[in-house]
Amino acid sequence: MKIIAYGIRDDERPYVEEWSKDQNIEVKIVKDLLTDDTVDQAKGFDGAVVYQQKPYTASVLDRLAELGVKNLSLRNVGVDNVDADAVKRNDIKVTNVPAYSPAAIAEFTVTELMRLLRHTTQYENRQAKGDLKWAPDIATELNSLTVGVIATGRIGRAAIQIYRGFGAKIVAYDVFHNPELEKEGIYVDSLDELYKQADVISLHAPATKENMHMLNADAFNKMKDGVYILNPARGDLVDTDDLIKALDSGKVAGAALDVYENEVGIFNTDFGSFDAIPDDRLKNLMKRENVLVSPHIAFYTTTAVRNMVQFALNNNKQLIETGKADNVVAFN
Ligand code: COI
């Protein structure tokens, strides 16, 4: 059995090597992403393990199938960048890693909320200028707030557990109800109801065609004045222009954005200076003291990275050996 692993970063390499040694399976490490230029390197391999934010295009997937490589294992959870039609027409089996560390994302999300509530940016900026005064940034306590959790998959549920540790009240919305949470009666029947009740919106939904820009002007209008928005999920869920307007008007008191709708090619890149970042809207957000932008790092922990690599390799091995795997993605 031979597996090719594309887009392997330096922080992932030791985990690939460890797995390959433990399993006694050859894994070819390729630093480049899976693109038209690199796809032919997969010739002769039984499966490919991949992670990238750039699209897995129809032409790449067609070529992969032509080469007879039909076992594709993603090292991450989101599959919104995979061309579903090409997967289906080529009968490619795709796996993802649905739970590499829900806690990683949940812990980061709540950390960012605490930073917003405690106005840490404002204090840091003033302190850097020698101003050690308290006012005007008096804080709000999380235990006095209602957090509206949108989507109660593994990450949403991990976040709920942490919010509860702080004593916050939770309301949740999801099309699929988790039986345990259902018993606790935390679900509301509509997003409108969640918007009405929540002081904080914690977004944990995957991106689909249907929920593109679900947080737009209309949604913000239905929310409480001074609401906080947390998006560690997908940039497309939030209409950035509408968010900027809602921040300008004060409707939204603060936002923590670990994702951004145009992040591909921008996040995880060093531009050398703030001015050189090639996106004015992003810079507008980054300049605000009540907005925390981070470059899609909620997942970036040693636990998560190891799990992403090794669970994906396990999935690929399963696919190669049996044609089945625990985490096969069903594309509709
Ligand atoms: C995912 O797993 O889909 C993520 O969003 C994390 C990614 C940046 C590795």
Secondary structure layout:
Blueprint: E1 2-5, H1 13-23, E2 26-29, E3 47-50, H2 58-66, E4 71-74, H3 84-89, E5 93-95, H4 102-117, H5 120-128, E6 146-150, H6 154-165, E7 169-173, H7 179-184, H8 191-197, E8 200-203, H9 217-222, E9 227-231, H10 240-249, E10 252-257, H11 280-287, E11 291-293, H12 302-322
Parallel strand pairs: 1-2, 1-3, 3-4, 4-5, 6-7, 6-8, 8-9, 9-10, 10-11
The structure holds 2-OXO-4-methylpentanoic acid.
Task: Summarize the structure in words.
Belongs to the D-isomer specific 2-hydroxyacid dehydrogenase family. Keywords: NAD, Oxidoreductase. It comes from Furfurilactobacillus rossiae. This is Lactate dehydrogenase. One of its GO terms (molecular function) is NAD binding. The two termini are 30 Å apart. This protein has a 6-stranded parallel sheet, sandwiched between helices. A 5-stranded parallel sheet has the order 2-1-3-4-5, covered by helices on one side. The protein is 36% helix and 14% strand. Helix 1 links the parallel strand 1 and strand 2. With 332 residues, the protein is of the alpha/beta class. Helix 4 packs across helix 6. The chain contains 12 helices and 11 strands. The protein folds into 2 domains: 120 residues, NAD(P)-binding Rossmann-like Domain (Rossmann fold, 3-Layer(aba) Sandwich); 192 residues, NAD(P)-binding Rossmann-like Domain (Rossmann fold, 3-Layer(aba) Sandwich), CATH 3.40.50. The chain binds 2-OXO-4-methylpentanoic acid (COI).
